[in-house]
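Form 7-S
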Amino acid sequence: MWNFWYTNQSPSKNCTHAYLSPFPLIRDEHNSTSYDSAIIYRGFWTVLMLLGVVTIVMASFFIICAAPFASHILYKAGGGFFIIAGVFFSLVVMMYVIWVQAMADLETYTNMKKMDCPDFAVYVRYGWSFMLAPVGVFFALLAGMLFLLVGRSIYLHSN
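Output:
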């Protein structure tokens, strides 16, 4: 038991997979928000994400309140909010792509990490959730246009 817990320890540096922060990183300082550009960019990204979520929730409430086909105005408002949410989420996706592809200084980051781990290599990959994000944007825009169409149809048939 003593050998397992105390004497059989790994070397001081253990190279493992990690996520890359696209903002400059000063050696021995692991705070990626120490740069104003990181704070501003992450702030805009976070605000757009939260606005998109709030807009989707508001659109859903408008559509639920208009469920018995009684108010064409609520359907149009819900459709408009779905379209606005689709625009917010498309901006979030574009900002993420710009964040990973354009703002990350991969060469400097790789050279810095090779000081600690000589066989270090960087691979840029998008996960499955990123692949589903444009699908969600498409369906938000589609739902918005369909609810605008339903509101228009209710308005035309109510007269």
